[in-house]
Amino acid sequence: MLKLSQSCLLLLSVLLVGCGTQGTRSGGGFSSVSPEDAPFDYKGDDYAKRLGAYEAQFKRPHQWLTGENGQYYFAFFDAAGQPTGLTSTQLSQASRVVKSQLIAKPYAVATFFIPSGDHQLIKRLLKQQKGLLTPAYKLTDELEIIPDIDRTTRLFHEYRNNYGLRLASLKNTLKYHVRFVASVESQCPTRESQGITSCVMQSWMMSNSLSNVFNTDNPYNVTLLNRLLNQEWPKLGYILLNDQPVVESPAVVNMKFANSSKSMKQTIPAKRAQEIKPYWNRSRWDIVIVKNSDQSRRELAEKMTEESAYCEVKLLPLEALDQYNPATAPNIHVREKAKEFTDNIAQQFCGKVIQQLAR
């Protein structure tokens, strides 16, 4: 059973409400759209339609639903981290919260998604194949991104011992992280390449024409990860990729090997907060399928999570603030508290769905 500490809950409620009262639009706040006009799997930019989709999801929790792009499984949680009741009265109350009091109530929505055609494959992988858990991440006092060893260890034992997954050891999790950070360095992001050693070396060694090969929107070098995959884990079936929003974002240049290691990029914490803030907004991990490119090689796609199954938990007030008025949305420290809350829900919700699939 989930418990959010009184201090954390108070901080969440007070600061989210304080920020949110400035974030609603004048003249009536949030408009509403009926679920019939916004199917439960709506993914567009119209936030009023998304609210209608949430109401539709409220009505059909804890069951697999088939949408346009795949299958979905939903649950909602209240400020204490408990699943919301779904009697007709409670549903009516929950719908009013979603439509008119979204800013003031820290409701969370949990979603498990499996792309069309992958349901049986995911079940077979979880039952029969070995997986690799990548690190969960946290922020240092200087707002650098480092592995959260405690949380990663808890997740590892939870999924292996309680939910029956066959996972490569935590030593391999660390090995993956080291290679991942090296792969970020090797991309030499044009935004902030100054001070990243390998970028300096690349500009010295490569001609201008050859250096264009390295220009990419991807913040990491998947070739290095695939090399590690084939060297160390030739029988790996999938990767449980933690904290996808930040891992596949430009903010990943603020990552480093460990708390004691040198920063990949030198900058002030305020600048890091600005870069990380848009992506420190929910708890999500993906089931990344390792593909057989031929009989001898195994590969990850260039963007690992483009077509992956995923499980995510979002705090609805935070999402609303980011959508309606980013200037008054919570700062990075409030987001850390919010993410602790959604991380705890995700560990429970995602684990139970995984357990269903792996039976």
TrEMBL record:
Signal peptide start-end: 1-19
Keyword vocabulary terms for this entry: Signal
Keyword Signal applies: yes
Name recorded for this polypeptide: Uncharacterized protein
Biological source species: Zooshikella harenae
Lineage start: Bacteria, Pseudomonadati, Pseudomonadota, Gammaproteobacteria, Oceanospirillales
